[in-house]
Amino acid sequence: MVLSFWSSRCTPCRTQLAALNRSLATYHSAGLAMFGIGVDDIRLRRANSRAGVRELRPAARPAKGVSRSYQVDNLPMTVLIDRNGTVRDVLRDYSAESEQLYLQQLRLC
């Protein structure tokens, strides 16, 4: 399972979500589940909606409690959880160069 914490104000978040979507397309049949957790407050989400900003996929409602539980201190932040429910890795500071690292870590989970 992949938990991806993101914000609509975070450009690297958008790039990372696109990369994760490609991974989901590849590994979904092997059981990969992905949840995008938007950390924007509801006022920003409403303003984005009125301005025509589309919700990024995968997406979930803002979940500050979940963010606190996983001690999100940087965006984007991705948590990789194996089939047994054990957190295997926490990835921060996404860049295009780190996409191979993400894929490597996904394969290990």
Label this structure with key terms:
109 residues; alpha+beta; four-stranded mixed β-sheet; 4 strands; 39% helix; globular
Question: Could you explain the architecture of this structure?
Answer:
This protein has helices spanning 11-27, 42-50, 64-69, 99-108; strands at 2-6, 34-38, 77-81, 87-92. The protein has 109 residues and is of the alpha+beta class. It has a four-stranded mixed β-sheet with strand order 2-1-3-4, with helices on one face. It is globular, with a radius of gyration of 14 Å.
Main sheet specs = 4 strands, mixed
Distance between the termini: 8 Å
Strand content: 15-25%
Oligomer: single chain
Low-confidence stretches: 43-62
Helical/strand content category: alpha+beta
* Tally of contiguous helical segments: 4
Instruction: Give helix and strand order, one letter per element, not per position.
Output: EHEHHEEH
Shape category: globular
Q: How are the strands of the biggest sheet laid out side by side? A: 2-1-3-4
Number of DSSP strand runs: 4
Mean pLDDT: 76
Q: For the CA atoms, what is the radius of gyration?
A: 14 Å
What level of helicity do the residues show?
25-40%
